[in-house]
Specification:
By secondary structure, the protein is α/β, with parallel strands linked by helices. It has five helices and 16 strands. The protein has two domains: 247 residues, Alpha-Beta Horseshoe (Leucine-rich repeat, LRR (right-handed beta-alpha superhelix)); 101 residues. It is 12% helix and 21% strand. The protein is elongated. The termini are far apart.
Length: 351
C-alpha cells in the first residue's frame, strides 16, 4: 500500500503519525515526508538498510533495527522531542545526542550490541541534554556508558567520568539489567529513580561527584520523590551508608527482590530524622524476608506499608504502634503474615 502511496503521501498535510516497515521495496521518501508539516510521530519497524530521515517531526521510534550503525543523522534531528530504540541489533555505538535542544525523552531498550553513547568535545554544560527529562535504559548488557568522540575503544578509564557534566533537567531515570554500565553523567536533581542490578557505581558517582564538581543549590538527590531499588543494587560497598539522609523529599520507597541481608545494610538511627517526607514504603518479592526491618518504626511520617509476595514474612516489628500516622497496611500474596495479623487481631479482641 505504502509503495504506491509514497509519492502522493505528501498531500496529507494533516497527517500526524506514520508507522511503517521499511525494506528495499517500500521506500519512504525523506523529501516527501518533510512536507508533512503536522507530522509528530514516525515509527520505523524492522529497518534493514541505511537511509536518511526527515527532520521536523517530534517523535522517532525504531524497532528491530539490524544495521551496523545508527546513522549520524540522529544527531541532526534538531526538533526531535522523543527517541525510542527497541530491540536494535548490530550497532556498537550511538552518535552524540547531547546537543539536541528539545529532546525530552530517550529510551534505549534491549539493544544487545550497544557499548557506547558518544559525546562531543568540548563539553558545553549549558547545552548538555538541556531539555532531557526522562531516560530509560533497559537490557543493554554490553553498554559501558558515555565516551568521548575520537577515543579508542580500548582507551577508557574512570577519569572520563569526571569529565561528564550532570543532566540539568533529568527528572525520571530507570536503569535495569545493564551490568557493564559505569560511565554516566550524574543526576543530582532527579525526582524518580529506579535502579536494578550491579550498577551502584552510578549512584555513588552522583552522591560523590555532583556535590564537589558542580555548584548546585541543593544536596544531591534531595529532590528525589520516588525510589525503586531492585535486586543487588545494595551489594556495592562504595555507596555511602548515610546517603539516605540526602533523601529529604522522598515520598515513595519500593524494595524489589531484596534478601534479608540487603535490609541489614540499611540502618536508620533513632536520633536522626531519616526520610522525613516518606509516606509509602513497599516490599515486593522479598522471598527470604521473615520479619519487617525494625528501622521502619523510626520513619514517623509513614502512612502506607505495602507487602507483595513475601511468602516467608511472618513478623511485624514490635514498635509498629509508634507509627502514629500509619493508615494502611496492605498485604498481597503473603499468607504467613496474613495469618499472623489475623491471630493478633483475634487475641486483641479477646481482651
Amino acid at each position: 500500500m505504502l509503495e504506491s502511496l509514497h509519492k502522493s503521501i505528501g498531500n496529507l498535510i494533516c497527517l500526524q503519525t506514520i508507522k511503517v516497515r521499511l525494506d528495499e521495496k517500500v521506500v519512504l521518501s525523506t523529501k516527501v515526508v518533510s512536507k508533512l508539516i503536522n507530522l509528530r510521530h514516525l515509527l520505523i519497524d524492522t529497518w534493514t538498510f541505511r537511509d536518511k530521515t526527515p527532520v521536523g517531526f517530534g517523535k522517532l521510534s525504531i524497532q528491530q533495527h539490524e544495521g551496523v550503525i545508527i546513522s549520524k543523522w540522529l544527531s541532526s534531528l534538531r526538533y526531535i522531542i522523543e527517541i525510542s530504540l527497541l530491540c536494535c541489533k548490530g550497532f556498537q555505538y550511538l552518535p552524540p545526542l547531547e546537543r539536541l535542544p528539545f529532546l525530552k525523552s530517550l529510551e534505549i531498550l534491549v539493544c544487545d550490541d550497544l557499548e557506547y553513547i558518544y559525546y562531543e568535545d568540548p563539553i558545553l554544560h549549558e547545552t548538555f541534554f538541556p531539555s532531557l527529562k526522562r531516560l530509560h535504559i533497559w537490557e543493554c548488557r554490553k553498554l559501558v556508558g558515555w565516551r568521548r568522540m575520537g577515543d579508542a575503544f580500548n582507551d577508557i578509564n574512570t577519569s572520563h567520568q569526571l569529565l561528564l557534566p550532570q543532566f540539568p533537567c533529568l527528572s525520571f531515570l530507570e536503569i535495569s539489567r545493564c551490568p557493564m554500565l559505569t560511565h554516566m553523567p550524574t543526576f543530582p536533581n532527579i525526582k524518580s529513580l529506579s535502579l536494578s542490578g550491579y550498577i551502584a557505581e552510578i549512584l555513588e558517582a552522583t552522591l560523590s561527584i555532583a556535590a564537589s564538581q558542580y555548584s548546585i543549590a541543593c544536596t544531591p538527590l534531595s529532590m528525589l520523590k520516588s525510589l525503586r531499588i531492585h535486586e543487588t543494587i545494595m551489594d556495592v560497598k562504595n555507596v555511602p551508608q548515610d546517603w539516605w539522609q540526602n533523601l529529604t523529599s522522598l515520598k515513595n520507597l519500593e524494595f524489589n527482590y531484596l534478601s534479608s541481608q540487603h535490609f541489614q545494610l540499611i540502618e536508620f538511627k533513632d536520633d536522626i530524622n531519616y526520610l522525613p517526607s516518606l509516606q509509602k514504603i513497599a516490599f515486593k518479592v522479598c522471598i527470604d524476608l521473615k520479619a519487617l526491618p525494625d528501622w521502619i518504626c523510626n520513619i514517623s511520617s509513614l502512612q502506607h506499608i505495602k507487602i507483595v509476595y513475601c511468602t516467608n514474612l511472618s513478623l511485624l516489628p514490635e514498635r509498629m504502634p509508634h507509627l502514629t500516622n500509619l493508615c494502611t497496611l496492605e498485604i498481597i500474596d503473603s499468607p504467613l503474615l496474613v495469618e499472623e495479623c489475623r491471630t493478633a487481631r483475634t487475641n486483641a479482641s479477646s481482651y
